[in-house]
Amino acid sequence: MATGDEGLKIAATGVGGWFRELDQLLRGELTRLSSLRRDGIAISLRRLSYVIVVLAMSYGFCMGTFALFRVQGPGVWQLVASIAKVPLLFFLTLLVTLPSLYVFNALVGSRLSPMAVVRLLVASLGVMVAVLASLGPIVAFFSVSTTSYPFILLFNVLVCGVSGVLGLMFLLQTLQRLSVLDSETARESATGPDHLAREEPSSALDPLEGRVLGKHVKVVFQIWVIVFGLVGAQMGWVLRPFIGHPGLPFVFFRGRESNFFQAVLQHIHTLFS
Amino acid sequence: MNSAVGLLRLADSVLRGEMSWRGSRFELRRPALGSLALGILVFGMFYGGVMGMYGGVAGPRFLQVVYSAIKVPFLLIVTFLLSLPSFFVLNTLLGLRSDFSRVLQSLLATQTGLTVILAALAPFTAFWYISGSGYQLAILFNGGMFAVASFGAQWMLRRDYIPLVRDNPKHRWMLRTWLLIYVFVGIQMGWVLRPFIGDPNSPVQFFREGSWSNAYEFILRMMWDVMMAWRR
User: Fold this and answer.
1) For residue A217, is it within any domain?
2) Roughly how many angstroms between the first and final C-alpha of chain B, as a whole number?
3) Cβ of B94 and A205 within 8 Å?
4) Residues 120 through 149 of chain B touching chain A, CB cutoff 8 Å
């Protein structure tokens, strides 16, 4: 479904087109102030979701290679389970955090519709998963060549952390840009169009220069972003195991005990003792 | 003969970072990506071969020379390929995508530069071996040679990045990130691909069965052993 805008919307020409959309997202072309103002976040939810699932599965594969090459432990079933779980992790986290993002957004006076909020979150997931998948080969390499379970677990946590941070930076910047556009549109309709030259940020992650965004709005968004991170981390714990302890047999989900942060601290302790 | 001269010319061009006037500013003139890759192969194999000569070249030990000659370029190329996707995505996210073809050329040229420097250091390694060195020390010496070559390569990379950083300061962070990723992966890769030198008391093998799970763990332990040995 190609639309008129030159270059910014993509003709749906198969798989290449899907990744091109992700590419444009990463380059910041879909979150430029001019394109946001024109049609919000112009992504195709269906296409981007497919891309997210594919990339998440590839990362699940890389994570699962640890279990594949161990003599004991969960073996190839862990690989299959990880491939299934990583997309699940992302979409469940999205589901859990979506209502609160919409509510907070509405509270600060944004005029984003629920669909727009969904698009925003999915776009951020796209960024997150792109970084994750690109680090996949490195994770796979270490998984295959290391036998230390605490090391590989912490390494995966680090990689997911980095992708999460970048995805959330994207989310935060885009939220702020959308809010700024909202407030400016409100001002314009009251006082007439603003002809001052607008400065476009040079990338998807750059903050806007010299824009006034209410301090409380910024804080609200920042808190929400932290909450998203916490939910994602704990969701990862709830859905465990992703890597599979070499001493334990395969099981799809482990029983409820402890939590993500406690477990990470424990593994750090094991690694360094 | 032509190819030998061509190789030397490639090495020279890479080391000097030849500039040419392009458009409105000086830009680094780089050989084609294919030639750069070939350079990595040839110079890397040369140093690898010399590395593997520790146990002598008689009989079965010659295999070690062959193995090491294969492993050095393999180490560099595979580490490069593993580190590239995440670096590419990071560059894209930070809005540096339009510079990426220059960045890629610089990165690859740095690899070639590293192998050129290594090849130049090979006589030192040969001399060290001939002077009769313990196995642990030989490993550390080679590590030292790699370190020297890496510093040289890093210096080249910084030089290449000067025009990029001038255009966009974010490149400075990207340079540091590349080094971080590359070194992190490279150390483990070097560990996995061992032995490069070949303990003369062990049979010649392509891979050793792992006794330590992690490169970093092992390096620290080996340095500790050497320090202990010196103290006695």
Assistant:
1) yes
2) 52
3) yes
4) none
